[in-house]
Each structure stands twice: as structure tokens, then as C-alpha cells.
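Render Extracellular solute-binding protein in 3D.
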Amino acid sequence: MKTKYAPLMAALTAAALFTGTACSSSGSSSEQTTDPNEKVSLTYWTWAPNMDKVAAAWNAKNPNIQVTVNKQDGGDPAVTKLLTAIKAGSGAPDVMQAEYQKIPTLVSADALADISADAGSLKDKFPAGAWNGVTLGSDAVYGVPQDSGPLMFFYRADVFEKNGLSAPKTWDEYAAAAEKIHKANPKQYLGTFSATDAGLFTGLAQQAGASWWGVQGDAWSVAIDEPKTQKVAAYWGGLVEKGVIDNKPMYTPEWNAALNDGTQVGWVSAVWAPGVLEGSAKDTKGKWKAAAMPQWDAAAPATGAWGGSATSVTTQSKHKKQAAQFVSWLNSDPEAVKLLATEASVYPASNDAASVLTSPPAFFADQADYYTIAAEASKQMSPFTYGPNVNVAYSAFNDAFGKAAESKKASAFTESLTTMQKTTVDDLKNAGFNVAG
């Protein structure tokens, strides 16, 4: 019987065969025969803080399955280290924290096992958008969602009140607020378009209903230069051209100072923003509010994500079934979810996140409904499929949109998508993937 899993694997296997990577070990963990009384030791690579304390709770209750946490650098260094071990045939951990955007790359390298037999029943415990991140739209399960970064809107409540504004419910209202605030005080901006943060732009495209990669038969499809993303690019390009938002990158000393001195009075960001604001805008504590994202269609609310990761079982693990049991517990058991939030300081992807996060972040101490807003945003995340060359697409974004932001021309923003599309497609073809269209 042909399932959605078959065409996905056909597309991924094309690259695996091209690169000489064997595809013999990524089968479901149900294929293993295990002795329930066997004592096993699992290694877990993660960059989340205090994860050893979370694993200790598991170890105390599971004497036959002991987990040792090995702290790693996050992002690309962790992926590179795992891929090196996979290629060498040894040295990979049993369990790996993996960013959603990196999962297709790891799957195409035969680094992640399909644990659908042991974790597939967890689907209803997570928002659909997060679950899609570990399935790639297939019947396979390449991990269990651990944390997520639903987009939210953060704004200086005192500035909004002074200008007679309320939190924008639509992107039209955001544009109007941006214009009014900047007209009242030319030094103030409601936001900035940051051409160095492809992840945020991806989340904005996701909110609009875009999904940049997909699988058609035995091929990958790429849909970056398409109407939904074009709408997002044209919108932000229009605001930059009009001069009502800034065009400088985020996460620079200049941007940090602007948050702190009140010249940047809004930020489209994610649930983890309070930690950044506490470090960058400490003098403004108590003046910010969090709100749901402005919408393209207020009657059909949606949001995207910026960041987030899953916990996956690697194909080199000799104890895939036990590893799958651990990652299932880690991300769905109420005790574990609470530990993720309180010890590891992440926003759990689980639907139960709001029930364990009963106090708002310190920087938003006066906003008791902070995590209620976050939970609703998490449920509204639109599905989005990443492809195996996210790094190439993001690099193309940095180059093309960097020039567009500097030019301050809306037309350059939409033209940048054409560049991204071509660069991404060409790279897939050069890497040996089948590409639709």
C-alpha cells in the first residue's frame, strides 16, 4: 500500500544515493526486538540548559533505561557534528535535539529514525503546525516536538496610549499605527525590517499560508516566489519605502540601544522575546505588552513560528525503541513538560504548555495572560514544510533582501524572492535531488 511516506522517501533517497549515503537503518523502531528487562544506556545531545536535571527525573523512574546528557553547541555546529558521525558510521548519540528547519537535511542524510510505531499516537498532544515539523507532511515521525516559537507582537503600551492606539489586529492596522507613531515622533519606529533574520521572514510567510518546500511524487517542489510570500514581501517593502519602519538589522548594538531608548517601540517576534527584551531594553521594563499577531484575515487567525526544535532518535542508536520511549516522555509527560519550562527555560510545544506556565515572564510581570496568548498562537501556527537546503535559501535571503532593504524600494523586495527561488532550486538540482517543475 502506497502512503505519503513512500514519495517522501523517494525524494530523499534520490539525494542519499547521489551522495553515497546508505539508507538501510532508518526504519521504524518497531523493527527492533528488545528485552524489556535489558538495561540500556542512552546518550542525548542537546543545547537546552539544565537538560541533565530533566533527564534525572526520567532516570529516577526508569532504572533500566538511563540517559546521559551531553551538552552541545546549538544550530549548525550540532548538525555538522551529527552528520560527520553518520558518515563515519559511528559516534552519533541515541537522541538528538534538532531544529525543525534542519530535520529534512538530517533525514536526507539518513541520520534520523522513523519512530512512528512508538510515537505516532502522540499527534493529538501537539499543535498541528508543530507536528508537521517532525513528519514533513508524511506518515513517518522523525522526532517529537520539544519547543516552539509561535510569533507574537510586542509593543510599548505607553507609546500606543499616547498616540490613542490599541494593539493592531490586522496588518492594515499595523501599517496605520506605524505611520501615526513615526509622524508623531520621527525618531520612533514601530519596527524594522531585518534582512539578517531569514527565520522571522519565513515565519511571516508561514502565517500568510506559504510553505516553501513540498514533495510531489519522487521530487521536491520549491514555492518561495509565489503569491502568498510575494504579499508579505510587498507589504514590508512598502513600509520601508514609505519610511514608516526602519530598515536596519536586529541584534546589533544599535538595535539594542533603540529598544532601550524608545526609538524602537514595537517588535514582531516570538514567545521567547521577553528574555531578549530583558537583556536589551532593561530600562523599559513594565512598559511593554504582548499581543496576538496582526492578521491578514481577522476571521481566520493564523501565525507562523520563529525557532523551535524536536527531539529525535538517530539511525545509529542500537536502542531505538527505548530512545523513542524517552523522547515521548520528555515532550508529552506533564512532569517532563513542566521541567522543560521551568528548568530548561523553553516554551514547550505540547498542548499542555499553558497549564504548567502559570506565571508570566519577569519582563511582563504585569501581564497575567501572557502564556494564554502564547498558547492560542501556538494552536494557530500554519503548517510549513522545510526542505533539505534551508541554509542555502536563508543565505540567498540575506544577500537579496539585504540589498533590497538598503535600496528602500518595495519592488526590490518582491524581486528578491525570484533570486531566492532560483538559488534554492539550482542548489537542489546540483545536490542530486529530483525537483518538480
